[in-house]
Amino acid sequence: MLPFVSAFLAAGRDIITRGMTEKESSSAVMATTFGLMIVIELFTIPPGIITATIFENPTPGLGPWLTPSPFDLCVSFSGALLVAGGHYAMIEALRFAEASTIAPFNYTSIAWAGLAGYVVWGHSPNIFAVLGTCIVIMSGLYIMKFEYLRHSARQKI
After folding, report:
1. If residue 27 lies in a helix (H) or strand (E), which one and from where to where?
2. Where do the structural domains in the chain lie, given as residue ranges?
3. Distance between CA 125 and CA 153 in Å, rounded?
4. For residues 26 and 88, is the Cβ–Cβ distance under 8 A?
5. Would you say 30 and 87 are in contact if contact means Cβ atoms under 8 Å apart?
């Protein structure tokens, strides 16, 4: 159920961002997004503190909390910069194209996640994951082609 909710919210975010880019700069949209993320994430601090004080090991299977090393912090910071750059690029893309045209490019994250899972943890996706990914990507390519044909037909009129 969580993947469906996540996909629904991500699509809503793209549609709202598309509407905002008509009136606001990309920097303003990005600042609004990150500001809302910070506010929402602040609500996770109290449950985290309560859970950590009640339970000796609040994350079974992951082990106790380890303070990140300077290298870990650099990797996290680098990842945050890359995410911010990707978010800015997506905002700019939504400024110039329809969300339905851009959405298929989001599917590349599936391939990157699969590659990262294999490289970092040695996890290979099973046949169902591969087939599901193929269906999602082919659907996105079909929609992209359909949108291109619809836009071309509209240009001829």
Report:
1. helix 26-42
2. 1-96, 99-157
3. 40
4. yes
5. yes
Range 115-133 burial, b when 16+ CB lie within 10 A, else e: eeeeeeeeeeeeeeeeeeb
10: CB partners within 8 A, 6+ apart? 106
| One-letter amino acid of 5 | V
Sign of torsion over alpha carbons 106, 77, 17, 5: positive
CA atoms within 13 A on the CB side of 107: 19
pTM (two decimals): 0.65
Per-residue pLDDT of the chain (157 residues; tens, 9 = 90+): 777 788 788 878 878 888 888 888 888 988 988 898 899 989 988 887 787 777 766 666 666 667 889 999 999 999 899 989 988 988 888 888 877 777 777 777 788 888 888 888 888 888 998 898 888 778 878 877 887 788 777 777 6
